[in-house]
Amino acid sequence: MSPGQIAALVAAGAFVLLVLLLAIPLIKLGRTLDEATKAIRAAQERSDPLLTGANTTLTHVNTQLERVDGITANARAVTGNVSALTSLFTATMGGPLVKAAAVSYGISKAVRARRKRREAGSTRRRRGR
């Protein structure tokens, strides 16, 4: 055997050793990727019912929000009707009620003032006697 052939055999042996050393991490990486694939499939299978439940919940929430919108619209209409009724009452009865209240206040004030004068006059008469 010539030195070139020996060098070729050594190089071939080194190449086989290099391939074997690189094959071990590649096999481990393949196993890791297989486990990751299994975990992703399991997570997907478990998440399907969760997403279905979330979708159902959102559907119910949207239904309830539509009902709340209807209630809000009705409340807005009632508020407008009450405001109109209040304006109508103020326009028709407000003026006469204010006048009646002013008259009753004036009468009660006049009656009090008259009573005070009578009491003051009777007190003077008693002292004078």
| Helical/strand content category | mainly alpha
Whole-number mean pLDDT: 88
Over all CA atoms, what is the radius of gyration? 51 Å
Number of helices: 1
What's the helical proportion of residues? over 70%
Strand content: under 5%
Q: What is the β-strand count?
A: 0
Instruction: Note the overall shape.
Output: rod-shaped
Textual characterization of the structure:
Keywords: Membrane, Transmembrane, Transmembrane helix. Pfam families: DUF948. This is DUF948 domain-containing protein. The protein has 1 helix and no strands. With 129 residues, it is mostly helical. The protein has one domain. The radius of gyration is 51 Å and the shape is rod-shaped.
Summarize the helices and strands and which ones pair or pack.
Elements: H1 3-128
InterPro entries: UPF0478
Transmembrane segments: 6-27
Protein name: DUF948 domain-containing protein
What are the defining features of this structure?
single chain; 129 residues; mainly alpha; 1 helix; 0% strand; transmembrane helix; DUF948 domain-containing protein
